[in-house]
Amino acid sequence: MIKISNNTKEKLKWQLLDLMYIAISIVLALVVGGIFMAILGCDPIEGYWIIFSKAFSSFGQVLRRSTVYILTGLAVAIPIKTGAFNMGGEGQVAAGALAAAVIGSAIALPMGIHPVVCMLGALVVGGVLAFISAFMKVKFGSSEVVTGIMVNYIVMYVIQYLSMYTFRGSANSAQTAEVFETAKIARAYPGSQWSYGLFISIGLCLFFAFMINRTRLGLEMKSAGLNPLASRYQGVNTKTMSVLAMVIGGAMAGLGGAVEVLGGRYLYLDTYFASFGYDGIAVSYMAANNPIGVIITAFIISVLKVGAVALDRQTNVSIHYITALQGLIITLLVSPYLVRAVLERLRRRKREAELVANEM
Amino acid sequence: MSEAMISIRDVTIRFGNLVANDRVSLDVEKGEIMALLGENGAGKSTLMKILYGLYTRESGEIVINGKNMPRKFAPLDAIKLGVSMVPQHFMLIDSFTVAENIVLGEEHTINKVIYNQQKAIDKVGWCCTEFGGIQVCAEQKVADLTLGAKQKVEILKALYRGTKVLILDEPTTVLTPQEVDELFDLLRSLQDKGITIIIITHKLHEVLAIANRVTVMRLGKKVASFETVNTNAKELSRAMVGKDIMSVHVEENGSEYQELEPCFYLKNLNTKPQGDRCNLKNFNLKLYPGKIVGVAGIDGNGQTELVEVLTGVSPLASGEIVTGGECITANALDNMRALGIGVIPEDRIEQGLVLDLSIRDNIIIGYKKDKRFEKRGILDMKCVNQYVDDLIKKYDIRPARRSAVCRFVSGGNQQKVVLARELERTGLQAVVASQPTRGLDVGATQFTHGTLLKLRDEGKAVLLVSSDLDEVMALSDFIAVIRNGEIVAFKKACEFTKDEIGLFMGGSHVGEVIEC
Predict the structure, then answer these.
(1) Taking CB atoms and an 8 Å limit, are A226 and B355 in contact across chains?
(2) CB contact set of B211 (below 8 Å; sequence gap of 6+)
(3) Has the ipTM of the complex gone over 0.85?
(4) Which terminus, N or C, of chain B has the lesser number of Cβ atoms within 10 Å?
């Protein structure tokens, strides 16, 4: 028998409540999404069946996508602990991917070391891009959301140029050359979609969960985000925390791009990495910015994304339907009062019913 | 027998699981001054907010001036029936003149379309004389007024709208003793004009000084109602707290300060001006081991800045802090902590605690680089938990769970968390306690006072900054009065009278500044 202390019980209760909110939001979104599907002329039950059966049959693809989503989710979840919002994931993923592809295809390095160097390159590139927004925030007070979006535009067009001209490796499309065998991350089994990169992603989630809950740095980051003034009274340098968390976030997004290049696509293809960064926001929000939760929500988003391809092909519901559904889930999640109001109302009705019963 | 102006019957309201008002009934007669007495969280303000239409009651009846109020009504409905509220934190527009503030929302009573400043000023002036004794200059900007004058503007605003019932929420917390007297005179003259007044307060002597009747609330319930002529402070406090309170007994521990060796000397401190905050100007103060130095003053006269300098949050522009042969000019946080100063900030919610973190995290955040609890940045949870559990026991923090999130802990226990963290620092030399009992109930206040006295007896230097003059006078060995970022008087506590301190606080007594 495992003895559960009161402490853990309390904690578990809160976490379960959090989970319930998330679950209710997802279910509500699926219901509303079903109505949309019906309007578009597709039986919702059949539609969802197509999505989930496709996701099941292409499970490897779901895991491959999850690998990237976990990292772009972390890219948002870590900075938000300090109150900073990493909006630049989109550019950081693409830049990290290009950096990994270039290092992987242009420099010869021995097996084992090569992928590590590629990933380090991506970490640095992603981190530097995030640093720009973070620095401008603490130095000039500019909103990191706005600068993040602007940096995204700059990065996307610069790397488009780079992939078209400087590092072009194919005559037909804007893409780099394939990375050397030495730089590749091994796939789980021959012919599988997903690679050992997934374990890197999950490992990092565990690492950051440890960092946030068990180290001085994590504690200071959290407290800087929750109450900057009180944190300064305790000697926490809130600006440093915010910059550091942003840089970590940017590095994670960059790594996300690198892992997909080294373990999936094997080259950088222009526009292939679009929307990974923005989807990371959804992943993080759905997980209530919890590093462990990110693993689960990245998986859910991947299922929907992979399933959407089949939905698009087999019915007249467009692939963009999933993006709308994702938006719906987030809207429900960020309006906690909506779900809470529903719960509160139910509870009150129950109480009134009890009162009436008692009086009778 | 006079008729009832306000009649509240069995009003109940809850917030989540908390029953804030439990079948409370209250009758206020026309033209009387009724005091609503209770500790913080007793439900006084909540009841008045229901009466004013800010909260919607769950059950019960409210009758205002003979009119039965529906369950849901807006403040505007209450205002129309002549009920008005002077909030604890004034809702005035600083950049407007007094007249503009008063007629705001009622401009149509002056001119239909075009606003006429002169007419407004005239009308406000007329209003002042009508209600006798209110002296405000209608043309002055509100930003230039003292807090006492701002309060008068708020009252005038209500009178201008033809109020019949005036609700004042903790009206005396920001006033000097002289201003309190003035306010009470004004209220009495309003009573003569037939206006009904309800005062929300937790101060016993004020109740006895001004009210005709007093209703005591405790934990959301009405516990008793007294005619003030038939009661006394002891009876009221017993009703308020539910048990007898022992007053803090302070023993004088001798010796003149001239003979004492100060352990901290704050010398000519100056802070950089920040916005419209009051900065310290040539601030001088000495702290003595085993003595409590109380700093009295009206809020916003540099107390916050003083505490921030001693915490290390606000950098010094010039000046030095001398202690044990050391002389510090750069008051960075780490330097100040190294001196062994524990700081209890004035606002435990904004400055003292990170409300969404647990008790444990809030305590441990203060022990940066403490080898006992961390190795290379990784927290030793076993040590941390043990330490925190010990403190929870020592300071009797409830709930006695280290994982309890501070937001859901009562105010008194939140303060205990701050005390535990700040007072258990290794090498503690001095304690800076700013408004340490603000918003606390009687029990927690006693605990905090007891803790400060114990520190004094252990030979620590204590700096007590408080706008509660009674608190400063009860605890301090020496009293310094702060005004505009300067110390304007410093004496042994027993040599000061309350009136004298009040005069220094208000700035009308400047002649005999005693060098400290």
Answers:
(1) yes
(2) B33, B34, B35, B199, B228
(3) no
(4) N
